[in-house]
Amino acid sequence: MGVLEDKARARLFYKYLSKVYDTINPLVWNETMRAEALEWFDPQPDDRILDVGAGTGFATEGLLEHVDEVHALDQSVHQMERAFAKFGKRGPVKYVRGDAERLPFATDAFDKTWSSGSIEYWPNPVDALEELRRVTKPGGTVLVVGPDYPHNAVFQRLADAIMLFYDAEEADEMFAAAGFEDVTHHVQQAKPGSPRAITSVATVPETDGVESSATDADSEPVDTAAD
Questions:
Q1: Alpha helix ranges (H) inside the chain
Q2: Residue from 130, 103, 125, 98 nearest 11 by CA
Q3: Stated pTM of the model
Q4: pLDDT tens across 121-167, in order?
Q5: Model confidence over 48-105: pLDDT tens digits?
Q6: What is the b/e burial string over 209-224, where b = at least 16 CB atoms within 10 angstroms of the residue's CB?
Q7: Residue 45: count of CB within 10 angstroms of its CB
Q8: Angle at 105 between CA 35 and CA 144, to 5 degrees
Q9: How close are the terminal C-alpha atoms of the chain, in Å?
Q10: Which residue, among 26, 20, 13, has the nearest Cα to 162 in the 3D structure?
């Protein structure tokens, strides 16, 4: 397990990264890549959308081009404060502070669920993928963007020491273990030589029979009343 696949370390890491995140992020995940992923995600105007690991709101911003409201979950207060500055505290984004491995939402609460730049920090990615499947309606889409495993041996050792990197075969194994049957993987890259992203698009089985492990009553909406 990489050093940042620990929730407390990841929160501390983002306390400082949040200050420069929007400057660094386009180097590995830019608007062109986001637009391509949104085409695969295919959000419709009436869809109820969840953004898991929403961070400063880069993906949320793209999603709001297609829907009027997005539920945004993140464990980092510092990242969410950056999102507040973009969207306001009482605007189209409904903030919830929470854990991807135990989502504070009822079963089948969303039409589609998105997560980009978050899976690499999950200590138990299969558990989190099961949760994404649980809160998404049968037939709905789950899209997950993570870091593609590097080809260079030196970078492989570095990647393994830091966080979760994985290839399409490993992604297949994780999604299958989480109960998905129909999954497609796309490798994206900002420019030649830059880190690659692997974007997985999965459909929740129509006969999904998962039981709820959390309800809306368990949620922790962010207090937006106090500045």
A1: 7-17, 21-24, 31-41, 58-63, 77-87, 125-135, 153-162, 168-177
A2: 98
A3: 0.82
A4: 898 999 999 999 999 999 999 999 999 986 655 444 555 555 678 99
A5: 999 999 999 999 999 999 999 999 999 988 889 989 999 998 899 999 999 999 999 9
A6: ebeeebeeeebeebee
A7: 7
A8: 30
A9: 37
A10: 13
